[in-house]
Amino acid sequence: MFYRYFPLWRSFFEELGWKVLTSEALGKKGRLIYFEDSCLPMKLLVTHSLSLKEKVDFLFIPRLVSLDRDYIMCPKFRGAPDIVRLATEGSPLILDETIDLRTKGFSWEEAFLRIGKRLGAQRKEIQKAIVKAWSFYFHFMKGWEERINTLPLNQLWEFEIPPGPAKRKEEQSYHVALIGHPYNLYDRDISKDLLSFIRKLGMRITTSDSLSKKEMEQEVSGLSKEIYWSSGREMVGSLFHFLSSSLDGVIFLTSFKCGIDALLQEFVKRRLKWMEKSKKPLLILTLDEHSGREGLMTRLEAFRDVLEQKRIQNPIHEGRNPLTDG
Prior knowledge:
Layout: H1 2-15, H2 40-52, E1 58-60, E2 63-66, H3 76-87, E3 93-95, E4 98-100, H4 108-118, H5 123-142, H6 144-150, E5 174-179, H7 182-186, H8 188-191, H9 194-200, E6 203-206, H10 213-220, H11 230-243, E7 249-255, H12 259-272, E8 282-287, H13 293-313
Parallel strand pairs: 1-3, 2-4, 5-6, 5-7, 7-8
Helix pairs in contact: 1-5, 2-3, 4-5, 10-11
């Protein structure tokens, strides 16, 4: 959720007078810290938390249960603060306020107030920080699509750096949707900076952030199997929405060893076999800490070739799409 809410959190803490420090990318020499049967984001969380252990007064790791009134987060979000507390041996202190919007009467404001009180702030200054944080967040997110299409990956969350000038239409031959967990899209150690390579191939990127909850829910509300995880609903709803849109194609990033992703990927493949929407090019890339940049680049280049072929033939022949295998 760092990749979803960092502008909000940082603005809130800074308004209360705290300096916000984030961990650095691991780079080629960095190594993820392994836990038995741990999923990729949990390895990232522990590794980055340990890198900050001696540098901060608090680690901010909220216990996320639900960010939606009707659906829940992956259960590992609930245990994340406890796992990091064990890994860091109880130091530094962890801000682990529970956020569960399913609870009657609970709200984002209530969570902010509790966090602010733990930091010694008064109610009035906390409320003022909440208003400013949300205002900044919504303003920042309005320019998100331009940011991901113009800025280097390491500058996406540099608030002082505005989005670059939009490229000319002839430089962006294709418009594709990039769907997946935010860490798969934006974490430099995991995505291998796919954003910049996709852009170099002449493709403009759109993500789930451009859709409203209503647009995503329209695509999943009629499914025979209920999807209880909010992240899963968002990804499946976005994928089916973009497959029926005017975009040229869709790229779906999944995580190896993520149980939710494994189920969703199989569900999507089976559904697309008999849906009219399956005619639009779809590339499924499965990532883990061992994923090589060269292999990913080869798959993306092949995907762009399919987009070119489809545009020339319009439509290309029907049949099984080899890009969705693996």
